[in-house]
């Protein structure tokens, strides 16, 4: 006589709610929704987000994929003071910067943003501004006026890396912000501008930059005091975007090209990710408060040389729950 298990096959767990951390290939029946579900794996991909209200490039970006911010910028030759906030779907207007400028850097979250440096018709800026989710107020001034600096951290623990002091040279100067004043940090190993940055003030990552080709292939790690060399980039990269931490970072877009390539860093070396941006671009804003598995690319300059209002969202590889259907 046939046994019940041979008639029914492999048993499937019946649960009232989905497992919190399902493994790939795990299958269960959800008795609450009356659906058959399973654990799968989501492939990394870039997707189209909501457009900026105003197309521009060389702006400050900060925040996260679902709560991003873009401030300042240039289009086509006019510096902007406008701020826009992203909710994961669309952009809305925020409080204007006190000083219209471009080629500035941003750090922090949407409701606690730091914007510093940049360029305006009056020249390179030392100005720092702090955003509270509604309006900008003046912060402590940088010791060195500069455009195109790298930068990361938070509103009360920011990091400014290098920059262009045109008509002067690129600099190795690094400054640290404590929420009120900037002080001198450990000098960068090379003169640098247009570098991408991720991490915190005491565990930062600086990725590529100008001048190329030498600096454009470099990764450098900061411990709050000094810099050490990390793994070399797979390709020269400047005017790019970054997110994540010192040991789990993402770099995307930028030059040469511009490119739409995406690479991951594990604290030692870089790996190319199959996911490519829908539109290759450079000199855009990015959400540098995000994790390696999430990023926001905001505006920028396209291969045709035009300014863009497009937004792209990155979602990295991750386990997901899927409903199993007959199709």
Q: Which shape, going by the Cα principal axes?
A: globular
**Overall number of strands:** 30
Which residues form runs of ≥5 with pLDDT under 50?
Answer: none
Number of domains: 2
Helical stretch tally: 1
Helix content: under 10%
Write the CATH architecture name of the largest domain. Answer: 6 Propeller
Question: How would a crystallographer describe the biggest sheet?
Answer: 4 strands, mixed
Spatial extent as radius of gyration = 22 Å
Oligomer: single chain
Distance between the termini: 35 Å
Structural summary, described in words:
There is one protein chain. The chain has 1 helix and 30 strands. It has 327 residues and is mainly beta. The protein has 2 domains: 39 residues, no CATH class; 271 residues, Kelch-type beta propeller (Neuraminidase). The strands form 8 sheets. Strands 1-2-3-30 form a 4-stranded mixed β-sheet, with no helix packed on it. It has a 4-stranded antiparallel β-sheet with strand order 4-29-28-27, with no helix packed on it. The mean pLDDT is 93.
Topology overview:
Layout: H1 4-8, E1 13-15, E2 27-30, E3 35-42, E4 45-48, E5 60-64, E6 67-71, E7 83-86, E8 91-93, E9 105-109, E10 112-116, E11 119-120, E12 123-124, E13 128-131, E14 136-138, E15 150-153, E16 158-161, E17 174-177, E18 182-184, E19 196-200, E20 203-207, E21 219-222, E22 227-229, E23 241-244, E24 249-252, E25 262-265, E26 270-273, E27 285-286, E28 294-298, E29 311-315, E30 318-323
Parallel strand pairs: 1-2
Antiparallel strand pairs: 2-3, 3-30, 4-29, 5-6, 6-7, 7-8, 9-10, 10-13, 11-12, 13-14, 15-16, 16-17, 17-18, 19-20, 20-21, 21-22, 23-24, 24-25, 25-26, 27-28, 28-29
């Amino acid at each position: 006589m046939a046994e019940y298990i041979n008639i029914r096959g492999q048993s499937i767990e019946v649960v009232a709610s989905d497992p919190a951390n399902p493994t790939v290939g795990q299958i269960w029946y959800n008795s609450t929704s009356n659906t058959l579900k399973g654990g799968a794996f989501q492939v990394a991909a870039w997707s189209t987000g909501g457009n900026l209200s105003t197309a521009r490039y060389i702006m400050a970006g900060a925040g996260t994929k679902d709560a991003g911010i873009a401030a300042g910028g240039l289009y086509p030759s006019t510096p902007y003071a406008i701020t826009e906030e992203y909710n994961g779907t669309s952009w809305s207007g925020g409080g204007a910067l006190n000083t219209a400028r471009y080629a500035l850097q941003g750090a922090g979250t949407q409701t606690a943003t730091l914007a510093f440096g940049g360029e305006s018709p009056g020249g390179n800026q030392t100005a720092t501004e702090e955003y509270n989710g509604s309006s900008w107020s003046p912060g402590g001034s940088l010791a060195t006026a500069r455009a195109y600096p790298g930068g990361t951290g938070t509103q009360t623990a920011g990091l400014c890396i290098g920059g262009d002091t045109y008509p002067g040279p690129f600099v190795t100067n690094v400054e640290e912000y404590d929420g009120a004043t900037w002080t001198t940090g450990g000098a960068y190993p090379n003169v640098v501008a247009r570098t991408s940055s991720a991490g915190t003030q005491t565990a930062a990552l600086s990725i590529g930059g100008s001048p190329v080709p030498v600096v454009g292939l470099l990764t450098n790690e900061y411990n709050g005091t000094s810099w050490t060399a990390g793994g070399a980039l797979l390709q020269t990269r400047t005017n790019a975007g970054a997110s994540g931490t010192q040991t789990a970072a993402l770099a995307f877009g930028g030059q040469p090209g511009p490119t739409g390539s995406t690479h991951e860093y594990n604290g030692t070396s870089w790996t190319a990710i199959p996911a490519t941006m829908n539109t290759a671009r450079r000199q855009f804003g990015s959400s540098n408060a995000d994790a390696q598995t999430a990023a926001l690319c905001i505006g920028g300059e396209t291969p045709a040389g035009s300014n863009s209002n497009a937004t792209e969202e990155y979602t990295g590889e991750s386990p997901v729950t899927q409903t199993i259907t007959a199709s």
